[in-house]
Amino acid sequence: MAVTETAPGEAMAEHTAVEEPSATRSAHEGILRRQSARESAARTYARALPIVPVRARGLTIEGADGRRYLDCLSGAGTLALGHNHPVVLEAIRKVLDSGAPLHVLDLATPVKDAFITELFRTLPPGLADHARVQFCGPAGTDAVEAAFKLVRAATGRNGLLAFAGAYHGMTSGALEASGDAFDVRVARLPYPQDYRCPFGVGGSHGAELAARWTESVLDDPKSGVPLPAGMILEPVQGEGGVLPAPDAWMRRMRRITADRSIPLIADEVQTGVGRTGAFWAVEHSGITPDVMVLSKAIGGSLPLAVVVYRDDLDVWEPGAHAGTFRGNQLAMAAGTATMAYVRENGLTERAATLGARMLDQLRGLSREFSVIGDVRGRGLMIGIEMVEGEGEGEGGGVAGTGGSNGPDGTGRSGGSDEDRGAAGLLGSVGLSSADDAGPVVMPGSTASPRPAAPELAVAVQRECLRRGLIVELGGRHASVVRLLPPLTITDEQATAVLDRLADAVAAVARGHGRGAG
């Protein structure tokens, strides 16, 4: 049964099959059957979320069957202000009622001029005064492709640097730079993380090792990696499992690339427009990238994607990158309204404060249920990694169970650097003793985390849906339950989200006999 969301202050009630009119239920089921019969096998969200939205406002979606849900998917982070926010609808109606053209290719219009003005007002210091903007096809992946073409043209070089676990889109070039590429033509570098640190140490030591690896790859003439055209990174890896990059590591990447004249591309498709508690996630570290890839929330719920870059990189010939729908006037109007509303109403600060509070509460939940291996995030970009329960699977204790706020405020997990000590730089090397008695763990290294449990994450998502809560899954093994609520979520709604999520986790833990931590 699904739990409905009612007006503030009213009790939540459950819909039962008896309460649903048969005609409504039949229409709902018929639409789902036709979708399954006629749409591509590549569809994704529709498989895990068998709902038919017909109305939506703010955090709430109402399905064709009359059930209501709290939407913490938010169009994969697209809906910064939630569904159908009044300022967005007003901006769209204003354009529609004005008689302005809706399709203008790359011609100048008052709507476009207002969008660029608002966008440049929000850009990090050091970029806004020397920026150019390229409107792309209306998806983040096309903006990524454009960024790659730009830095290749500007540098005369071809190769690219990207990071393990990255996700930059579904077109061929973007996939090459993503973590699940098959045909690798982009050099992969380690992305710092605590819970599953590739060096077994986490914290600033793990980030330092990742940075040294990057320097070695670039400076070693026998590394097999020639000087690249650019480096692309996400300030928070979203699809990679909600992994916030340490601020110090971000500054190190900026210094490494600047010293070697390598353009740094920041993929802010999902992290932008206040999502992480800063308008752009790079602002947490204070860096200024050479290129920023933007989409999702900048269109105010409608398709829009742009590349913003330093003017000295603007070496393109006319038509070097184009797209029929790069002049989406409705999206520009909605995006202008969204960015201005976020900026003027302090929603970035709100995301930082509320996000920290939600992370703290979820860490309390992780201490209650051992199937939660880690809780991490930044602002209202939150992840809960599901793992095998105590005594199941491989591995010993859980490194960083429950997470902690790191010294840079990223909400990354793991113990302190002092606890790890200098020996932590060596990590858990997995050596075998002479008598083959088992793995040897070096002093100062973190214990191996328990195996990821994607089946538990799926079960939590399913139980959340039954309780009227929509969540996303992500991470290396699709074992991370993700929360991406709109920045307009109220305290009362946040409490309802966490209550339903906690109830879902408890149900899954009980059902699998994997309860108390």
Please state the oligomeric state of the protein chains shown.
single chain
Work out the radius of gyration.
Answer: 23 Å
Largest sheet: 7 strands, mixed
Binned strand content: 5-15%
Poorly predicted tracts of residues: 1-19, 393-407, 414-440
Q: Tell me, what's the shape? A: globular
Q: How much helicity do the residues have?
A: 25-40%
Work out the helix count: 14
State the secondary-structure class. alpha/beta
Description:
- The model is unreliable at 1-19, 393-407 and 414-440 (pLDDT under 50).
- The protein contains 14 helices and 19 strands.
- With 517 residues, the protein is an alpha/beta fold.
- The protein starts with 21 loop residues before the first helix and ends in a 6-residue tail after the last helix.
- A hairpin with a 5-residue loop joins β18 (472-474) and β19.
- The strands form five sheets. It has a seven-stranded mixed sheet with strand order 4-12-11-10-7-5-6, with helices on both faces.
- The longest helix has 22 residues, at 347-368.
